[in-house]
Amino acid sequence: MVPPLNALRAFEVAARCGSFTRAGEELGVSSAAISLQVRQLEDHLGKRLFLRQGNRLSLTAAGLALQPRLGAAFAEIAAVTGELRDGPPRRRFVLSVLPSLAECWLPGALEGAPLVDLAIRVEDDPVDFTQGAHLRLTYGGQAYPAHAIHTLFQDEIVAVSADGAADRPIHIDWGAAYPNEPDWATWAAAAGVPAPDRGQGLVVPSTVMALSLARAGLGAALAPRRLVAADLAAGRLRLCPGPALPMRQAYVAIHPVAMTGRRPLAALLAHFAQLSVPEAAAPSNQRTMA
């Protein structure tokens, strides 16, 4: 007997979001309702799908086996119903990109890329692939445990400003969705200079805003080297004397496993592979592009 559709949908969204609360927000119900639906599905299947550790969720082996196929099934349902509603598909490939990558890296990376019928969406994580995205470019793959993940590049944090001075640091609050990266205290310790006062100076929510302020001469920003390469080449920013700090994760390209080998996905991945530098071995579901 087929499990209830609502229970399957609740599990798929919770597995993708990694949270009953975020799943409830996406589906317009309470986290308790999501938890109940998942529990009913587990009872129906006779398998535990999640390991619950306080507010943290992780998929069991059964959950990992179910999530990608269920995600692909819901994506197919969305595609079929979309065709019935809107007519034949437009055959447009949708590239979803993290805002900082879209602003600072993608324009140069797309030079010479296959651009036919390519639509670019700029959005934060996590992205719902059932809503039309085919390929996601972002930082770290922790939000997509059941997807194919390819390393784009590993980067390092450098200090930049309009005049090359680091005396007015701009602080970045990365938010809860992303791991903390090296901050000014870490940079100062590596440089052997006193740490700046976090309570003074500008605090912004993104790399993009920090770099905009730095270009305007309002202070120094810490940013990934590849994301400031064009600004450094054009003279809009200058490197501040000091260390380069390795970032904790890689920038990655992510897609549903079911799309592996399809065009233009394969063409875009091959193009990005030409830009990437091989790094150390990645986790089992993450591959360095080659």
Automatic annotation (TrEMBL):
One of its GO terms (biological process) is DNA-templated transcription. It comes from the Bacteria. Pfam families: HTH_1, LysR_substrate. Residues 3-60 form the HTH lysR-type domain. One of its GO terms (molecular function) is DNA-binding transcription factor activity. Keywords: DNA-binding, Transcription, Transcription regulation. Belongs to the LysR transcriptional regulatory family. This is LysR family glycine cleavage system transcriptional activator. It comes from Gemmobacter caeni.
